[in-house]
């Protein structure tokens, strides 16, 4: 019994000992050096001069700092030193209450030079009114791993010459700005890049970056810019770790390069709303078995839908709308794409019937076949229609039809409700002998039958 009673006491002693050890560990850590402490205040003032940062946070910023100011300790075997490693600005949410920005926020790269161990810079909706040139971050040195700018429409200017020396950069995110010009060729030397997201900016021109060097790249998003020319074939030669490729809403033209099939791990491919044309759907897609989503909407690929679906059973989303596709919809799509949730084939020139196999796609939650030349009876059950509802889109196919019970089952506003009623099959009556009445015809058949029996008896 005594030993059992001693267990809670030992537990309390252990907790108190751990507390005092941790306290002494924290107290033994050195404070942030004066140069970096002052640099943090200056950066905070440039972001939001309305807050008296020095009086609100007068103590060592490694022990008491606004959310988003992160400090770490470094041991070189002789001394332990404290350094700023992360600076995040712009209120995101109650879970990420970074120092809020103001319409007059400014950004000067020289303010960051004292941070010798800085790894991450993050700005969210900080530069929204006053025009701010994109700064030259070359002076930050090799410690920086992440530069993130989200929704900063007043950030302007080019990137050229502003990223050199950032040899450790793993993540560059620049979305929703007015930064313009070409992507610097030097980006090909940032060999540690894992994510390059430059969406919704004002970039233009051709892309001449050599992606063969970017062996670690996993995400490449250049969507919603003004890029032109062909897609660099070096993408398929080097970035073999790529999981996501988004080049949508640009002016890329020519042929979708076959070397993209070298992206064996690619899961997400979006080339929508460009000018790829007249070469048909790329057959090499059938060799990219890791694909889960493929979006080629709004190009001019033309041709028939090829039989390439046998190796793409993991796909959950496909959009091939608005591509000038012709011919029948292959039944193999319904056979092999058993995991698909979204399928868009609308606004093409497809004809023939809707494959019966489409009605067996149990995970399908949206099917868009609008504005084609499809005909015949739709192959969907009442259960299928009840599950997919108004996400079954069939308008613009005047020769499609549905049974009365299926049309009546459809919800108000459903595209099924506007389809014409399929004709009931006509059951032909037995042909009458010319000039005979029904009774005479029956009598004739009896006589023929008796004659047949007589022949058998003989």
UniProtKB/TrEMBL annotation:
Pfam hit, one: LRR_1
UniProt-annotated location(s): Cell membrane
Name this polypeptide is given: Piriformospora indica-insensitive protein 2
CC terms in the record's Gene Ontology section: plasma membrane
Keyword Membrane included in the entry's annotation: yes
Main location as per UniProt: membrane
Domain of life of the organism encoding this protein: Eukaryota
Keywords: Cell membrane, Glycoprotein, Leucine-rich repeat, Membrane, Repeat, Signal
Organism: Cinchona calisaya
Keyword presence, Protein biosynthesis: no
